[in-house]
Write a structure and sequence with these properties.
The protein is of the alpha+beta class and 598 residues long. 48% of the residues lie in helices and 21% in strands. It has three domains: 102 residues, Beta-Lactamase; 116 residues, PAS domain (Beta-Lactamase), CATH 3.30.450; 204 residues, Heat Shock Protein 90.
């Protein structure tokens, strides 16, 4: 009964009070069991400690290696996707861009070079040229790179010998190579992008790193070749032997091995992507029994007390940590995204208070997330729909069919016109990812689209494009008119036999820009017009871009505000006029400020 009362009292007490009471009892209990030998247990604990410390150190080195290699791989991605892939080597050089990236990474990078598949040096920084009589096409790294185009390839350390004219041409390097696509005018070809990593910068990651009790750290490739070893020269001369080939086949973990009659603990950790392995070897005889004996009495007393305290504290930890573990489970569920999780809290007052605070925080986070999602959902959806519509496969296929038909009928003049219009159409559609273009480009874009559709539908409709000169250099949201024209063709004139008319106008009124698309098609009722701006998501017909009137309206409002958007005037059997209302802002001003150009 008394014990039960004390237990209930402790449940309501603070963590500090619980720890004080239990640690006091632990100290009293520990003094009763002094005299029990822990020599064997101590030895095992020391070995486990050494393995654990080695594992931690190896993991730290591995993470540093991965971060270092990841930096170089990001540099390779930047060179390829940011420079090489966007450049036309027939009309210009990429030396300045490569030099800029090299200058930002020259502490770790020795050379950067771009070679053709024939082994010709196209660009190099800071190297000037290849050495005479050097044929890189016969090198393993070059051939393997071209054979496995999707991968990045890391070589083993070697002396850089292929470049001439560099004061550092004989330094040790590790080469990173990848296959790239090179553009020369209208043609593309394969090439190889080479980055020579300074071996000295990689070596610095290992210099000064020593495992306890005479241990050391080394780095090997997936095939067992030594990349770094503190005794590399002795190994090369045969004085010292390393079991690197055996280690290359081991999984990550700790192992006990015998090398030249010496037992050692080997720790292995794989470096991500490369397959390289960081190894650490520690001799088992590094723990001297003689050294332990000199401090045995002190260690014995301390270890014995700690042992007793460990046993008693197992109960203490359960009393303290069980509520915390329950709280942790709830927090993990919240971290996984389930903000509706009911936080389980118990134990002391502090833990209960913490659980309630986390519960309240989760509710606040959910409210904030809902607000943020609601605010940005429309913009993301609109931008995604626009991105999908930039290249419409159905429109492209139909246009290509027209071109093929014209060529087969030897109507080469019209075929050239359609191809030219198609190229200009997609040039403006893509426009390097910009959301804001000039009214001139927007009208040119829809004019090319109308030309292609007019060729496709023959005498189905006629069209006119009118614009005031003063509006041509104003800023317009990309893909505003084309979806409206698309709707006019596919829906307004779907059942017409001919005499269809489409009129496009652009004019300025004070500080506002207006662009309209008018047709003499079937028209719409007020209910149909209202549904276009309703909450129902637009479902593409399968022939159009799928952007829709609602999407254009939402994008205009999201970029320029709720004072702007679309206005529809339509009557059944009388046609439809859709007018886009935007602010009249010079494109150069928008481009300079960067407010809308993305």
């Amino acid at each position: 009964m008394l014990f039960e009362k004390q237990r209930i009292k402790l449940q309501k007490a603070s963590i500090r009070y619980i720890i004080f009471i239990y640690f006091t009892l632990t100290a009293l209990a520990a003094s009763i069991f002094i005299g029990i030998s822990l020599y064997s247990r101590l030895s095992g604990q020391m070995s486990a400690t050494i393995r654990e410390e080695n594992q931690i150190l190896i993991n730290q080195i591995t993470r540093s290696m991965e971060d270092y290699l990841r930096t170089v791989m990001k540099l390779s991605d930047s060179l390829y996707y940011g420079v090489v892939k966007n450049a036309d080597l027939a009309s210009g050089s990429i030396g300045s861009e490569m030099t800029l990236l090299y200058d930002n990474n020259k502490d770790n990078v020795e050379n950067i070079a771009l070679l053709s598949k024939e082994g010709k040096l196209l660009e190099a920084v800071p190297a000037a040229r290849l050495k005479t009589n050097v044929d890189v096409t016969g090198e393993n790294w070059f051939t393997s790179t071209l054979e496995k185009t999707e991968n990045m390839h890391f070589s083993t350390p070697h002396v850089q010998y292929i470049f001439d004219g560099s004061e550092n041409q004989y330094r040790w390097v590790i080469s990173l190579s990848r296959a790239v696509e090179i553009t020369r005018g209208p043609s593309t070809d394969q090439g190889v992008l080479l980055i020579d990593i300074r071996y000295s910068s990689l070596e610095q990651l290992f210099d000064g790193v020593n495992l306890g009790n005479g241990g050391y750290v080394y780095l090997i490739s997936s095939s067992g070749e030594i990349i770094y070893h503190p005794q590399a020269q002795l190994i090369d001369s045969g004085i010292v032997r390393e079991n690197n080939l055996e280690v290359s086949g081991l999984r990550d973990g700790n192992y006990r091995q015998t090398v030249d009659g010496e037992e050692r603990t080997v720790t292995v950790k794989t470096v991500g992507y490369t397959g390289w392995k960081v190894g650490g070897g520690t001799p088992l005889d590094g723990v001297s029994l003689n050294n332990i004996k000199t401090k045995l009495l002190v260690i014995f007393m301390i270890a014995f007390v700690l042992f007793i305290m460990t046993i008693i504290n197992s109960y203490i930890s359960s009393r303290i940590t069980d509520p915390i573990k329950e709280l942790e489970k709830s927090v993990n569920e919240i971290e996984a995204g389930n903000l509706e999780t009911e936080v389980r809290s118990g134990g002391s007052y502090e833990i209960q208070h913490l659980g309630n605070s986390i519960q309240n925080m989760a509710r606040q986070i959910r409210r904030l997330m809902d607000d943020i999602v609601a605010e940005h959902e429309s913009k993301r959806k609109s931008e995604f729909d626009t991105l999908q519509a930039q290249i419409n496969p159905h429109f492209l296929y139909n246009t290509l069919d027209i071109i093929v038909w014209m060529i087969e009928n030897e109507n080469l003049t019209d075929a050239v016109r359609v191809v030219t219009a198609l190229a200009r159409f997609f040039r403006i559609s893509l426009s390097r990812g910009k959301s804001i273009i000039t009214v001139r480009d927007e009208l040119e874009h829809v004019r090319n689209y109308l030309m292609i559709q007019h060729m496709r539908y023959k005498n189905k409709f006629t069209y006119t494009v009118e614009a005031e000169d003063e509006v041509l250099d104003l800023a317009s949201l990309k893909l505003v008119l084309q979806p409206l024209v698309e709707n006019a063709i596919y829906h307004g004139m779907e059942f017409m036999d001919g005499d269809g008319e489409i009129r496009i106008r652009a004019w300025r009124q004070d500080k506002d820009l207006f662009m309209s698309v008018s047709d003499n098609g079937l028209g719409m009722t007020r209910e149909q017009v209202k549904r276009l701006f309703g909450d129902t998501d637009h479902m593409p017909s399968g022939r159009g871009s799928g952007i829709g009137v609602k999407n254009v309206h939402q994008r205009i409002r999201l970029y320029f505000g709720n004072d702007y958007g679309l206005e529809i005037q339509s009557e059944p059997d009388e046609g439809t006029t859709v007018t886009a209302h935007l602010p009249a802002i010079p494109y150069e001003e928008v481009k300079k400020e960067g407010s809308y150009v993305k």
